[in-house]
Design brief:
By secondary structure, the chain is an alpha/beta fold. The chain has one domain: Aldolase class I (TIM Barrel, Alpha-Beta Barrel). About 45% of the residues lie in helices and about 15% in strands. The chain contains twelve helices and ten strands. The chain has an eight-stranded parallel β-sheet. Strands 2-3 form a two-stranded antiparallel ribbon. α2 links the parallel β4 and β5. α3 runs parallel beside α4 and α4 runs parallel beside α6. The radius of gyration is 18 Å and the shape is globular.
């Protein structure tokens, strides 16, 4: 089900309020460039600093703007199981197609606790669920055995966003999971090597800015044209890396504002604007790739 490129949308702000107009432009830009799906209020969408009402409004606005032209996968994860259930049910109510659930962060549950957490959410919704393992942010990994167990016991847990940076882990996942269970890269710079080990696409930060190019990279590989996929990978690899020279989503928001897709690069504290050195480096990379319009 989840094959292709899914953009982890930024949440644009203006004067500390969600900028609905900029969000609408960003979504239209994605759809015009053939994106498979969009992911509001994930990590890149600054979900930790949105309150519950804002969180659901952003999902609802995204569903309305997409108008069924691409999949909408709502970020609904939390380190509180009750909150994750509530967010997931609300996302289902406003029309999301699927939910992305990050591993609970900070409280560091055991693998049994992780299993019970995700199963409780799965039991509370009919939507397909994508697990999200990102130990660098959460402090824990969803073990391969736990993913396998969840896939066997929860019919609507159908994919995982893998952001642990390990090709070996993708090998392990793909060797034990059903062929119908999708593994998606959570790192743009690792999409190609992950797909070589069985992943079926990417939940991408870079595709906020270059949806057509990331989409083509993935589709070339899925169609067996590895040479064309590799060419795009190496062409945009410097951008994939430089979008993380400062905490995500600070660089990608800056880039989107520079080219006018969103009105401002604003983020909410404790994030702050890019340093001058970081901005110069990112602008240089964008310029070399002919991505700046001014």
């Amino acid at each position: 089900m989840f094959r292709g490129t899914f953009t982890a949308l930024v949440t644009p702000f203006n004067n500390d309020q969600v900028d609905e107009a900029s969000l609408g432009r960003l979504i239209q830009f994605q759809i015009e460039n053939g994106i498979t799906g969009i992911v509001p209020v994930g990590t890149t969408g600054e979900s930790p600093t949105l309150d519950h009402d804002e969180h659901i409004r952003v999902i609802e606005w995204t569903v309305q703007a997409a108008k069924g032209r691409c999949l909408v996968i709502a970020g609904t994860g939390s380190n509180s199981t009750a909150e994750a259930i509530a967010l997931t049910q609300d996302a289902e109510r406003v029309g999301a197609d699927a939910a992305l659930l990050v591993a609970p962060y900070y409280n560091k549950p055991t693998q049994e606790g992780l299993y019970r957490h995700f199963k409780a959410v799965a039991d509370a919704t009919r939507m397909p669920i994508i697990l999200y393992s990102i130990p660098g942010r959460c402090g824990i990994e969803i073990a391969v055995e736990t993913v396998e167990r969840l896939a066997a016991s929860c019919k609507n847990i159908v994919a995982i966003k893998e952001a642990g940076g390990s090709v070996e882990r993708v090998n392990q996942l793909c060797s034990v999971l059903p062929a119908t269970f999708n593994v998606l890269s959570g790192d743009d710079s690792l999409t190609l090597p992950f797909m070589a080990s069985g992943a079926t696409g990417v939940i991408s930060v870079a595709s906020n800015l270059i949806p057509k190019q990331v989409g083509e990279l993935v589709q070339y590989f899925l169609k067996g044209d590895v040479t064309s996929s590799r060419k795009l990978h190496f062409e945009y690899y410097p951008l994939f890396k430089d979008l993380f020279i400062e905490p995500n989503p600070v660089p990608i928001k800056s880039a989107l504002a520079w080219i006018g897709i969103i009105a401002k690069p604003d983020v909410r504290l404790p994030l702050c604007e890019m340093s001058e050195a970081g901005a110069l480096k990112l602008r240089s990379t964008l310029d070399r790739l002919n991505l700046l319009t001014a």
